[in-house]
Specification:
- The complex is a heterodimer of chains A (251) and B (328).
- Chain A has 251 residues and is mostly helical.
- Chain A is built from eleven helices and one strand.
- Chain A has a domain of 175 residues: Cytochrome Bc1 Complex, Chain C, CATH 1.20.810.
- In chain A, helix 6 crosses helix 7, helix 7 packs antiparallel against helix 8 and helix 9 runs antiparallel to helix 10.
- Chain B is mainly alpha-helical.
- Chain B has a domain of 96 residues.
- Helices cover 49% and strands 5% of the residues of chain B.
- In chain B, the strands form two sheets. Chain B has a two-stranded antiparallel ribbon. A two-stranded antiparallel ribbon of chain B has the order 4-5.
- Classes of the chains: A mainly alpha (251), B mainly alpha (328).
- Bound molecules: protoporphyrin IX containing FE.
Chain lengths: 251, 328
């Protein structure tokens, strides 16, 4: 619906809305009326902190699915869903070499929906790595890194690295053979750096071998350090999408 | 006021384009609706997936039992694959660091604002993308097969149909794989009496590889005439000692195999790609070059990941996917 169109006449929706929600308490939460007029629709976006990540209007080519394939949005959605499922997993998981493995194994048997939560968390983590790559490719092939969006591309590259690190740190937590050897292989690569490689590796895993110290480090980074950083950079990323004039358009 | 805040930064930073209101839609409902649908679709998809498919949990971690093969997470298996073909510092640290830095620097190298906002914004972009993807995939796969000596197997198999006793000829010894330059190849340069090259016994010739394995680095403090020899500089702080190449000798054959050839290929092939596209008359300007190189990068990343994940079995041997052992 283009912005210039006239507001529609009264509808069942707005009548119901008025009847149900036109009261003092509801109005204190949602400032605007039912979003069926351009004014209210814009207010619905502008007065809501979450929806306010959006502009109130956008160019019509940008709602075409094939322009973005929703990939940035889906990546963000994965991040949110991973936070939710991750918090649930944290209720049952203790990061110590004595407990970690049995805690994860217990999710399968002792915790209602524990397996489901773990599966969701795992598959969505893989999904996020894939979509962040695809998002980068769509941004690249639409030339959207070009001025004035140079810096937002850089923020994106940082988010890509953070996504990989989030996934990598999470990989160790189940403390099974897959986990410990993947992290051993991965950190050995860092250890081969020409300068200070061994030192960096020691610092990362808190010893010469992947053990208790590595587990607690990876856990802390995985559940608070990296998500916090990622959230900050995502906030900057979204802010910049808007500040740079919405999505890129042909000049 | 938002515009005022930006005015400071105007100048050579591009201004945002004027808006045409009649081309615009309202975010509520048009975008919010799409986002909502996308979120629902993804939630349902992943619930179904997670009910159907359990996340793996192998045996409890044990550093005394090394699974064979041990693999990094899939998105790092490309680096693990690189590791098989070059110096670990190059594969594990230097290449990924440079790749990320170049990726981040992309918008500062390709600064023309034209060609944004639509897919494949230059006239030849699609052709360049397809060509670069194929070029990079073919060369990556080809180089891996070469380094694995697969051409030797194939040629030997065929040749032995004709002549049962056929073997890979010695003149072609260095071309069995890259490492063969170091380990499977022997030649010598005669050195006249009285000329001393390096230290050690004078046997009248310089032999590849053994006589090239300890080429002293300049000023390494342990080679050359007396005045160029000194003690280890213990008085320096530790990090300076780590930087100074005291007593370092270059293993030239290993250097060629692990660093020189890989770097030459990683610089040379992208350059060759650009040159080729230029000669084909497809490539105009930096945007086209960026498309070629980015596509090549993605293509290499994907091919390396697929080979590392699906085709590396026990001992990191190149095998078919169904021969990759399952580890527990
Ligand atoms: C956690 C990772 C990321 C999240 C959650 C994210 C999210 C988003 C979202 C929601 C958008 C709006 C348009 C769209 O959906 O395509 C966007 C745009 C953009 N993203 Fe990302 N992104 C991430 C990573 C990246 C990466 C890795 C890059 C590039 C290296 C990047 C560069 C950009 C740029 C330049 C835009 C503006 C696109 C345009 O103007 O058309 N982002 N991002």
């Amino acid at each position: 619906m283009a912005v210039t169109e006239q507001p529609r006449g009264p509808r069942l929706g707005s009548w119901l809305y008025d009847k149900l929600f036109h009261n003092y308490v509801w109005r204190s939460v949602f400032r605007s009326g039912y979003p069926d007029t351009p004014r209210n629709q814009m207010l619905a976006i502008a007065t809501n902190v979450f929806l306010h990540l959006h502009p109130t209007r956008l160019h019509k080519t940008h709602v075409k699915i094939t322009h973005t394939y929703c990939l940035g949005g889906i990546t963000f959605f994965f991040f949110l869903a991973l936070t939710v499922t991750g918090v649930m997993l944290m209720f049952y998981y203790v990061p110590g070499v004595d407990r970690a493995y049995s805690d994860i194994a217990a999710l399968e048997t002792n915790v209602r929906f524990g397996m489901l939560m773990r599966n969701l968390h795992r598959w969505m983590a893989h999904g996020m790595v894939i979509t962040v790559f695809l998002h980068m490719m769509r941004v690249f092939y639409t030339g959207a890194y070009k001025p004035p969006r140079e810096f937002n591309w850089v923020v994106g590259v940082i988010l890509l690295v953070l996504t990989l690190l989030l996934s990598f740190t999470g990989y160790l937590l189940p403390w099974d053979q897959l986990a410990i050897w993947a992290v051993t292989v991965g950190t050995n690569m860092i250890g081969s750096a020409p300068l200070l490689g061994g030192e960096t590796r020691y610092f990362l895993i808190g010893g010469f071998e992947v053990g208790d110290a590595a587990l607690i480090r990876f856990y802390t980074l995985h559940v608070i350090g990296l998500p916090l950083l990622a959230a900050i950079f995502m906030a900057v990323h979204f802010w910049r999408v808007r500040r740079d004039g919405g999505l890129a358009r042909p000049l | 006021m938002a515009v005022d805040a930006q005015a400071v930064a105007r100048g050579d930073v591009a201004a945002r384009p004027r808006r045409e209101r009649e081309q615009e839609l309202l975010v509520w409902p048009d975008l919010v609706f799409i986002e909502f649908i996308a979120a629902v679709v993804f939630t349902v998809t992943f619930f179904v997936l997670s009910v159907a498919l359990n996340a793996p949990l192998l045996n409890r971690a044990n550093l005394n039992i090394t699974p064979n093969p041990s693999k990094a997470p899939w998105y790092f298996m490309n680096l693990q694959e690189l590791l098989l073909h070059m110096h670990p510092a190059l594969a594990g640290v230097i290449v990924p660091t440079i790749a990320l830095l170049l990726l981040a620097a992309l918008p500062y190298l390709d600064r023309k604002a034209e060609g944004q906002g639509v897919y494949f914004g230059t006239p030849n972009a699609v052709k360049i993308t397809l060509f670069s993807a194929a070029f990079a995939a073919v060369f990556t796969a080809g180089l891996i097969l070469y380094d694995q000596g697969r051409h030797v197997n194939v040629v030997t198999n065929i040749a032995q149909h004709v002549d049962k006793d056929w073997e890979w000829p010695t003149v072609l010894a260095p071309f069995q794989n890259v490492r063969a330059i170091q380990t499977g190849w022997e030649w010598e340069i005669p050195v006249p009496e009285g000329v001393q090259v390096g230290s050690g016994e004078h046997d009248g010739e310089l032999n590849w590889p053994q006589d090239f394995e300890h080429v002293p680095m300049p000023f390494n403090g342990t080679s050359g005439p007396d005045w160029m020899q000194w003690d280890k500089p213990d008085f320096l702080p530790g990090w300076m000692q780590a930087l100074y190449w005291y007593d370092l000798n270059l293993n030239l054959p290993a250097f060629v195999v692990e660093l020189l050839i890989p770097v030459a290929l990683m610089v040379g092939l992208p350059a060759a790609l650009l040159y080729l596209l230029r000669r084909l008359g497809w490539l105009y300007g930096v945007h086209d070059a960026a498309i070629a190189l980015f596509t090549g990068f993605i293509s290499v990343y994907v091919v390396l990941t697929i080979i590392g994940a699906g085709f590396r079995g026990a001992g990191q041997d190149l095998v078919l996917p169904w021969d990759v052992p399952r580890i527990d």
